[in-house]
Request: fold
Amino acid sequence: MSDDTMSDPASDSIIPNPWSTLRRHTPARIGLGRAGVSQPTAAHLAFQLAHAQARDAVHRELDHEALAASLSAAGLATLDLHSAATDRAMYLQRPDLGRRLDDRSTALLAGCEVEGPPDLALIVADGLSALAIERHALAFISALRPLLANDWRWAPVAIARQARVAIGDPIGHALGAKLAVVLIGERPGLSSPDSMGVYVTWAPRPGRVDAERNCISNVRPEGLAPEAAAARLAWLLNEARSRQVTGVALKDESGDAAPAVETRASFRLDGR
Reply:
C-alpha cells in the first residue's frame, strides 16, 4: 500500500460528532468528536492554547507610548493618566483602585485647560485586555471621527492605565465633558482574547452606576467590526446629547441602521 492511500491512525481513532458541520458557523467548541472517552488531541491542544492566550491578554501591559504616538499622528492630543492601582498585580486584586485616579493624574487633569466645555471625553483604558486596545482602538476612533458633526467638541483623549470602566467618571467630570466614552479591553474569553467594549455615560461624575451607562461589546473583526461599532456609538452620542440621558433611559431606536446596543446594568464583561 502506498503512502498516499494510507490513512492517519490518529484520525481513524476519532469518533465524529454529528454537530461537526455546525463548526463552520461559530468559533464555539462544538462537534469536536472524541477519542475513546476523551477529547481528540488537536482539540485539547487548541483549548490549552486559547487558555494561555486569554491569560497572557489579562497580564499584558498596555504600550501607552505607542498608542499615544498613533493618536498624535492622527491629530489627537492625549493625556497620560493612571489609576490608583500601582501595577498589574494590584489592579487584578483591587478592582476599586482601578476606578480611581492616582494623585499625579488628578493634578494633571486639574491643570488641563480645555477650550469651552467639551461635548466628549474619550478615555482609552487597558482594562482586562490591553491587546484589544492595541488592536482595535485606533481603527475605532478613526471610524468614529468623521461620523460626528463639526459641532462636537472633543477633550484630549485620555489614555488610562490599570483602569476599570468607572474611571471615565472622574476624568469626564474633571474635563467638564457632557459625555464620557470609555474604550476598554473586556475580560478575555477562550475564543476572544482581544474583545473591546465601549461604555457611554451622560454627565459623568464619581458615583455613577452601571444602569446609567450604555455598552457596545465584543468590538473586534470577528465580532462587531470597529466600523459598525463606531456607527452605533455615533447614533448613541447624538441621541444622548439630544435627550441628555444614557443607560436604561436611552433605548436603541435606530432600527436597522446599526447593530443592536446593550444597556449594561449587571453582567460585566470587563470584570469590574
